[in-house]
Amino acid sequence: MAKLILILGDQLSPALASLRDVQPDDVILLAEVKAEAHYVKHHQLKIVLIFSAMRHFAKVLREQGYQVNYIDYPQQVPSLYQAVADTFTQHPELNQLVVTEAAEYRLQQELLTFAERLTKPVTILEDDRFIANHSMFQRWAHGRSQFRMEYFYREMRRYTGLLMEGTQPSGGQWNFDAENRRQCPSDVIAPEPLWQQPDEITAEVIQLVQAQFPSHMGDATSFKYAVTGKAARAAFLHFVEHQLPQFGDYQDAMRKDDAFLFHSVCSMYLNIGLLDARWMCQKVDQAWRQQQVPLNAAEGFIRQIIGWREYVRGLYWLLMPDYRQQNFLETTTPLPSYYWHGKTQMNCMQQAIGDTINHAYSHHIHRLMITGNFALLAGLDVSEVSDWYLAVYADAFEWVELPNTLGMALFADGGVLASKPYAASGNYIQRMSNYCHNCHYQVKQTVGDKACPFNALYWDFLARNEVKLGGNARLQLAYQQWRRKSEQTQSEILAKASSLLIKLEQL
């Protein structure tokens, strides 16, 4: 029975489940469809990355002798279903559809309708590129009153054997997070990631994106990312050799006009299938065992992959679709326009959003403790913030973006993902960056015209949410500090916060 094998835009892996039994009569379908390109206003560089990587993947498959039906964007196919239906019409010899499950709930629900609409057998295979499958995560989660990544992470370490000595963690402890919080001095030189020059295929996609998505964030002509598995692997090995040794120390650091520091910038490759999570972690484990990188660097990186990445994916599928509607703190303030253009007097926000505009990338502390923290403190609308993160980052797909935004950045799930809100005043930003040195605002001031907005908004956040957050064990010290302030001081701070919220667009 000849098959139609549908490959989604984030499934560009030769080891994909649906590609393991390809026969000469089968047809492989990849499609640049309008619905996927427009469901949020994706960054230009994100669209270039995915479309170009898809086209390169199709080229490799053809070179291997497979039949490939590639539908490019100019053909204006409205949906994946239409792409599938049209291909069946063009190839009447095909009598079944095979596809690997979608990573996003929205898309998976669409796939589940295909069997009825097509009147052909549809086989949806498990995506085993992830280390923890759905049933494995469900077994771990079953019966737990609280979900905490740390405990899941330890199970994943045992399961994979990464950074393990028998049953014990390498170095005698599971987590070296406390060693990953150094500010990066100005004299420390961070090596550039390995960039790629656009080839002919990518150049065509850049022109397409410029013409078809002119109002979207970013400049397609600045594209420099890998679009093949080979180039992505080279970029990652470059990271392991040149950046990983200092990644541990400075993974939470931020520095003016330095978007990447010691980060790999490989999450976008991993999330579309150009890299394999197991291979990446094995390379990092090997680098530590060969004494090329310190343990805090190796552990910090591996925790991000088999800890956070696998954990948020597991929670996403466990809790959807209701999870998307969570708004524990009942926030409704519209997203300020500078999230899109970066023109604000807050230097930290200008830096984080500027990196986002320029690269479709900013590292996790930018996302959590700058743009996310500000959104939390200002009470920004959850769905607007979530859609922004989904749109502007090249590595963002809902399965990874939504738990990180709702659970980590905004505490909108009420503590399912995180044990406390990651709320912080300007003091945190000053400690972890040099952004405050040349800012319009004064980080040491809470009230007054030049006071850092993060300060008053931080205390206001605690005060207005005391009913919901006052019992949180990890916020007791903060609430004690607030209660020790005089009534007059409290009133001045709350008045300042109120004025900031009124003129949010002008900050």
Task: Describe the fold and architecture.
Helix content is 49%, strand content 5%. The radius of gyration is 24 Å and the shape is globular. By secondary structure, it is mainly α. The mean pLDDT is 94. The chain has three domains: 3-125, HUPs (Rossmann fold); 134-193 and 243-319, Serine Threonine Protein Phosphatase 5, Tetratricopeptide repeat; 338-506, DNA Cyclobutane Dipyrimidine Photolyase, subunit A, domain 3, CATH 1.10.579. The protein has helices spanning 34-38, 44-63, 80-90, 105-112, 114-118, 134-141, 149-160, 200-212, 229-242, 244-250, 267-272, 277-289, 295-319, 338-341, 347-359, 364-378, 382-392, 398-409, 426-432, 453-464, 466-469, 476-484, 487-502, and strands at 3-6, 27-31, 67-71, 96-100, 122-125, 164-165, 168-169. Strand 6 and strand 7 (168-169) form a beta hairpin. The protein has a five-stranded parallel β-sheet with strand order 3-2-1-4-5, with helices on both faces. The termini are far apart.
